[in-house]
Amino acid sequence: MNLLESIAPFDGYVTAIAQDVFGLLGLSVRVQNRERLPPAGPTLIVCNHRSFLDPFILTSFLNTPIDFVCHRYMGNVPVLREVLQSCGGFPLTNGDWYPELLNHARDRFDRGKTIGIFPEGAAPMLAAPSPTGLCPFYRGFAHVALQAAVPNLQILPVAILSQSEIQWPAVPLSLLHYLDPSEPLFRNEGWHPAVVYQQAIIRIGKPFSIAPYQQQYHGRQAGKVVKDLTATLSSQVADLLAA
After folding, report:
1. Which end of the chain is more exposed for a tag (fewer CB within 10 A), N or C?
2. CA distance 105 to 115
3. pTM reported for the whole predicted model
4. DSSP symbol at 39
């Protein structure tokens, strides 16, 4: 299992709360290339992921509502599940999560919304790479983007670069394993670390249309198209981190 397992939107009042919290934490964030944000239309943001703060930071400092794809264990935590649902989310708790994810993603794209996804899965959250490091991307996001069949869908690579941060053990992996026994990484010993940025940069890449990939996404070519799209986004996010 990876982070393609529930969508949790962070809108209006959550954004305002997040901004207040960031102010209290003394978090400093700069946004580079803001002009590259698509002004309208369905958009899929593909970003690296090292901290639980990432969804809130992107929504707050990009100043746009984003429906985020999150790990399935969040849907198995009673209070957290209700919070996500109250925000309009749909935490998935069954094993057959992909069809529901695809249907909800298609619905949001059809309404011109923005979805954010962290294709590295759980790995960087359990053993955070260096600020410029990147774990391999899962291909699920590419399947979602292509199978949603939205002709005007834009893909936007984004990178969050930590310049200063603190870390501490937050949650024992045994608890996460209890909440989601299907995630192999939760079977390890140790703790889920909390990464809290003190200074960070959000770098926005160049958006591009999914249409050329959709035109080739059929028959025997489909697997290669997914592989190519995944590699393209991984490379672009890595370049943004290294810029």
Report:
1. C
2. 8
3. 0.84
4. S
Closest among 46, 63, 50 to 10, alpha carbons compared: 63
Token pair, residue 104, equals 């909800």
Question: Using one digit for the tens of pLDDT, what is the confidence trace for 129-144?
Answer: 899 999 999 998 899 8
Q: What residues contact 94, with CB distance under 8 A and at least 6 apart?
A: 100
Count the residues in the chain: 243
List pLDDT tens digits, range 199-210.
999 999 999 999
> CATH topology for 6-242?
Glycerol-3-phosphate (1)-acyltransferase (3.40.1130)
Tell me if 58 sits within 8 A of 201, measured CB to CB: no
For 217, the token pair is: 């996404």
For the chain, the farthest-separated pair of C-alpha atoms sits apart, in whole angstroms, at: 53
Domain boundaries, the chain: 6-242
CA 227 to chain centre: 19
Instruction: Say if residues 66 and 15 touch (Cβ distance below 8 Å).
Output: no
Tokens of 110: 């059809």
Select from 159, 157, 160 the least CA-distant residue to 230: 157
Query: Reduced to 3 states, what is the DSSP secondary structure of residue 153?
Result: coil
